Amino acid sequence: MEIVSEAKSHGGRQLVCRHSSVATGTDMTFSVFLPPQSESGARLPVVWYLSGLTCTHANVTENGEYRAACAQLGLVFVAPDTSPRGEGVPTAPDGGWDLGLGAGFYLDATEEPWSGHYRMWTYVTEELPALIEAKFPVESGRQGIMGHSMGGHGALTVALRNPERFRSVSAFSPIIAPSQVPWGQKALGNYLGADRRAWRKHDAVALIEDGARIPELLVDVGDSDPFLEQELRPELLEEACQSAGIELQLNRRPGYDHSYYFISTFMADHLRWHAERLR
Amino acid sequence: MEIVSEAKSHGGRQLVCRHSSVATGTDMTFSVFLPPQSESGARLPVVWYLSGLTCTHANVTENGEYRAACAQLGLVFVAPDTSPRGEGVPTAPDGGWDLGLGAGFYLDATEEPWSGHYRMWTYVTEELPALIEAKFPVESGRQGIMGHSMGGHGALTVALRNPERFRSVSAFSPIIAPSQVPWGQKALGNYLGADRRAWRKHDAVALIEDGARIPELLVDVGDSDPFLEQELRPELLEEACQSAGIELQLNRRPGYDHSYYFISTFMADHLRWHAERLR
Q1: What is the ipTM of this complex?
Q2: Of A68, A3, A69, A72, nearest to A32 (Cα)?
Q3: Looking at CB atoms within 10 Å, which of A9, A24, A63, B96 has the fewest?
């Protein structure tokens, strides 16, 4: 693992790192913020942040406004990329931004031409966690996960399938039922094939319907989000959580959109919510 | 004036606006954050933020982490561009980033080929203030100004030459004696010509030596800033302020560099400092 850049910020250290990934067969870049409390050598709770369509690690790292809260709360913050990148990595044949580069959907593709590199599930659930634990002062028993849009989908599905690992789960504007919305249908159909049974373990609402459980969940959405009605459909998550007895705190924020102007507004609230559960 | 984008953030509204500038003879883009207190229609104090080399309005708007503090303190925050841009606007013949596009140095150029469009002094001291006052709920009697690097130079020179207009002045990593450092000598020589007497009104230390006065000044620099010794030289400002009786609070921040990771760390401190003086 190579440290690409390092800067002091809010009393801690903001790193950008690159490593050669076995899972994706490419170099992968991620960012990690080490709060000032890490200087003592103590192992700290860690919050994973999975980003949305078109993003790299850089979007939340530059625009997410998480460092002040992480420094105050003593949280390590890790932000992976959203897809493999580099020579030989295929992307959307139609030039679209909702498939291929920047749109890995946090799954292991089984279909050609994707299955060779698009293995983000293994990357974010196995390879990167092992690297983070080996290289940084994190406590694996105190992990939270959050994400935005496609990364909210990632956070929810990763948590629902690994409930023993995460003590706290939250999302901004998540895609919660990809099998039922255009972005998800395009991605899951291409990456996993036409058999919709294979989609269910990458669909938060389907996972809950099939019995996956976490105790509680914090979700914020903007009511002026242009993707709310067609792609996000938070009411489907409300129904699934209610049926399953999952305590969902769903905040519909008046006037907010899908951007980091929205995310950054409520980032500190989410991090406090995670910190309370990671104590 | 056209609103290019608008997003709700931290309870207020982050706008990006474009207008046709008489001063520069180009379209100019700037951002303005209206805190939630502006909804009442009351006129609010305004803080001007002048950006550094290579930046547009977008850098601080996306990476500056100012909105939470402005929303709490009731401050309007305006961020202009750093140079004219567009068809027919000349830039550095050597391709450098320290002259021409993104490097207007907040002065009115007198030399060819710059004098046609590079009129950022008139733009930030006359044209844009008049537009802001006409279009947004700001109180012209309560203005503060701050900036970063080349924009710190801009903030100091604008304030020193207009002390009646600004109640508060601060800077991150400012260029304070451009006549004495390579970035400044290149810019002032190109824009203003070889006669160094013309440079003095665009050099904060020279202005203070020549009698310009403001009561006090807040400056933060990182002691790991790679430009500290050659381009910034804050000790020259310390000496000038001491001789002139200007109360300078100079914070040398251990481990911090020249980036927005540094600026964002101390942004809220600066805004509180401004707000106390703008009450």
Answers
A1: 0.95
A2: A3
A3: B96
Residues of A with CB under 8 A from a CB of B: 7-11, 14, 62-63, 65, 67-68, 222, 224, 255-257, 259-262, 264-265, 268
Chain segment A207-230, per-residue pLDDT in tens? 999 999 999 999 999 999 999 999
* Contact assessment for residue A242 and residue A210, using Cβ atoms and an 8 Å cutoff: no
Buried b / exposed e across A122-146, counting CB within 10 Å, b at 16+? ebbbebbbebbeeebbbeeebbbbb
On whether the CB atoms of residues B172 and B274 are closer than 8 A, the answer is: no
Percent of chain A exceeding pLDDT 70 equals 100
The per-residue pLDDT for A41 is: 87
Tell me if B148 sits within 8 A of B265, measured CB to CB. no
Does the active-site annotation cover A108? no
CB contact under 8 A, B265 and A63: no
Residue in the block written with tokens 């503060």: B144
Please answer yes or no on whether A62 and B257 come within 8 Å at the CB atom: no
Q: What are phi and psi of B36, to 5 degrees?
A: -60, -30
pLDDT at B41: 87
pLDDT digits (tens, 9 = 90+) for A243-279: 999 999 999 999 999 999 999 999 999 999 999 999 9
Please check whether residue A52 is in contact with residue A82, taking contact to mean a CB–CB distance below 8 angstroms: yes
A188: closest CA among A219, A142, A157, A143?
A157
Mean pLDDT of the B226-248 span: 98
Do the Cβ atoms of A220 and A266 come closer than 8 Å? Answer: yes
Tell me the C-alpha distance between A41 and A46, whole Å: 14
Do A255 and B8 make contact, defined as CB atoms within 8 angstroms?
Answer: yes
Cα radius of gyration (chain A) = 17
Burial class of A194 by CB neighbour count within 10 A (0 to 12, 13 to 18, 19+): exposed
Taking only the tens place, the pLDDT of each residue in B50-65 is: 999 999 999 999 999 9
The percentage of chain B sitting over the pLDDT mark of 90, rounded to a whole number, equals 99
d(CA B78, CA B45): 11
Amino acid of residue B193: G
Cα A276 from Cα B162, distance rounded (Å)? 49
